[in-house]
Amino acid sequence: MKIEKILQDFGLSEKESKVYLALLQVGPAPVQKIADKSSLARSTIYEILGALIKRGLVNTYLKKKVKYFNPEEPEKLVKQAQRQVDAIKSSLPELEAITGLSRRKPTVRFYQGKEQMKLILEEILEEAQEIHSFAVAEDLLTVLGDHHKWFLSQRLKKKIPIKLILKDSVTAKERQELGPKQLRQVKIVPNKYNFHGLTYIWKNKTAMFSLSNDFTTIVIDSQELTNIQRAQFLYLWDSL
Question: Is the domain defined by 106-239 classed in CATH 2.30.42.10?
């Protein structure tokens, strides 16, 4: 059930989700009825109910000397989630301060394989407000293939503009003509400058993709080093 997955994302275990849903369906009930409804062994139900009580999602009462378990309204889940969000928000300044200390130190990450490249593309889409890139148009379309199509569609969906310097070719000129429709500005360098691969520059990061057989990617996380890369890109951009 989809609702079980949602409850598990909230933090409940698979069995806790089943028991809570069973209680919502049957209402206040003794252990045996809950066990029957959830299709779980009675011997494990008490432990699960105890966990749900600690979470504030179940309460108990006695009726004719029989212990009944009663589910709290689902609205309580929303309130608990909101409290968790509020707690994280209140801690953000401290968390960001800690993160800032680590980010002052440049880091370099290495990835290998085409599927690993998609992880970096996802990272760019998550973080970037604008992208600067060096590329070869044919590499984007033939080597990256479906990854490039997916990246383009997601970039447009998120409305992230890109400035792209391409090596001269028929395909590069086609990309240039399509540019305005795809939030893309393109400038072209003469094809005497022979290079392959792909570079993306965004925020404080630079990613360099080797599109040969091993598909190696290097990601540099450094504001200072990325500023150098961005300055070089913009100098060339303004010169074209």
Answer: no
